[in-house]
Amino acid sequence: MDKYGYTIKPKKEQRPAQLYHKPDLALMTTFQLREICRREKIIQGVVNPMDREDLIRVILRYRGADEYFLIKKRDEAGLAAAERAFKESVLRERRDLPLTCSSRIAAYKGCAIRFYDGLTLPWEADLAGTNAFIVSGDMTVCAILNLLPMGRRRDCLYLTMEAESVCRESEVKNYSLYCMGRRESEKMYRIYHGKYDFTPGYMEVYRIPLLDFEVREPARLPIPAAMDFGTSNTTAGVWLDQQYFEKMGLRDGERGLHMNQANYALFCDTARDWEETPLLPDGRLKDGEEYQALIIDCGGGTTDLSSCRFRVWDRRAAYRIEIDTAYENGDTDFGGNNITWRVMQLIKIALVNRLYPGELKPVPELLSGFDRDVFRYVDENGCAALYRELGSEYEKAGQRIPTRFREFENQGRADYYKVKNNFYLLFGLAEKVKKEFYGHVGTLRIALSSGSGEDGAADAAARIQAGKWTLSVRAGRGLETIKEFPDVAVSVYELELLLKADIYGVIRRFMEPMYEENALEDYSIIRLTGQPCRIGMFRDALKEFVPGKLIRFRRQDSPGGDPAKDAGLKMTCIQGALRYLRDRQYGFADISIRAGEPAVPYQVTAYTHTGEETVLIQSLKRSARSGIISRNLEDLTLTLYLKDPEGRERCQYACRSSLADFEEKTYEEIREIYGEHILQADTDDIAGREARFFVWAKPGEWAFCVVPVYRGDGKLYLGKEEAFYFENDGWMQNFFDGTK
Question: Is the pLDDT of residue 48 over 80?
């Protein structure tokens, strides 16, 4: 008959228990540990207030992962003990698991075997974190490997080996790979390290026959590798030819490597193979004709502008390429992190509005001031005026959700880490929001919450989950960590309103001086590089100054057509470097690259005794990189001011001089040291007891020099030289210094 009634304990799908390692727990905050206790239903860690160490102990007691006893270093005595164990013990081969792996294993002298080498076994929980031995027919231990899972993947186990571990061939081949359960593996670990004195009578093992085990010499790369060290990401690539594959015994496509192509690795993520983008526009170059290009590179922390003039000749034996390049301008205040910072401001204000309604302006009202002709407004008033109200509301939001952890360094340890956690939590969420919007086509709205997705913004196309017990707010009794992360939503329309002025501001700073001088007409190519340039507003801002057809902006075809996996803009520099190295190596091109003197995007000023400001080094003008200013000599200090092209003071430098620092010199001796930087005409009219400071730029060292010359009793005296860098950590913007 039909069943009527209510099932008290309905059957639910049981998920495997999550296990935790002590080193991973040691890196977590108290609130993250408390969230683990809540999620894993460890009542003792939820009900009773515990400190961080007690929470780690409780989690390890109920959800602790087994400790791995892995052999990682070569030890001759341990190796002899392991071989004795294999020779004298009775090896009982188990056949209850269908284990298979590559029948040929190759190792390289002095090189480790890692996940990307692709040596795998089928997943078996009892074998995770155990040792495996490659043993020859005469029971010689040739290599000791470790069976490890790759993160949370449960489809296979990876055979890995440290570079310092045992790795040798044997005269007697007939190799086998011996795997063993956790108990036997730990026993071999203790035997190897001398903690187990006697040989076991028998051991249970899994034996996998191998066709061959080979130890090879590493092959020299055909051309040098190229690396791009960025603020946020680091990339590397190398060109591999057919001879390299033959030396290594590899097939085309094996281990993700491709013959006669550039092979790339992205250090911030799993290694991928990226398709190439030509450095020069194919089919559009006329033989011997000069082309000029501008390259705008927006990285994680800075944005730079470089120029390039090049000509290409198709000679009988090879191409002849001449390239002249120079640095033209830069902005240390704008990059991908700046965009993330703006998104974080929006999220923080939205959170305070959600928790404390009415204290701040609603986000739609706040962004209504951005809904205008932003480009013309920035032309007339600058970016700072548009973001002033946003900054004011963000400061108010900091009273409820503090993120300036530097201000808490002299307060309690617990409050300091709560505030620091607030910053990195919100900055990390803002980075995810940015990547979701500009890495996936069609995402219009994103919801942030700590729930599973049933509540919050129902119309959100994507959700980003924030952990519980992660956000701390200022309440009546100080900082309190709240359980649930408030539900907030961000739309792509809000982000476009928010970011448009910043992006146009940096493009305008670079392009407007050249636009006013009609210099942009000389450039046939304008290239956007760097991952932030995926945002279409960069191209829109450039169209204010140049026709869109000049702008080179092309995504690569990413695997599966997912734009989030497109790294073409990041890889442009590496691609060009690899093509240059390849063509030089194989004689395809005779390439000449000349680096011109960089333009300095700063000016150095000082004030005369009458209070008049004098420009000593002019910004972006290669012909005006030196100046002089005079003082009456006592024990004096000359203050110099570093300013950006917009006239904002960035830094002050103090040049201190006293009579003891000067040595008598003739002008001929001064000229021999400093050449044309100190001219005789500028020293002849130095009056008595007057010290004249000569200031000039050193663009190659990204610094400037200050040298004082003093006249006394009709003689010249030369003071000590001081050098100052244009950029230093004292004034450059840092989003992670605890002041945001």
Answer: no
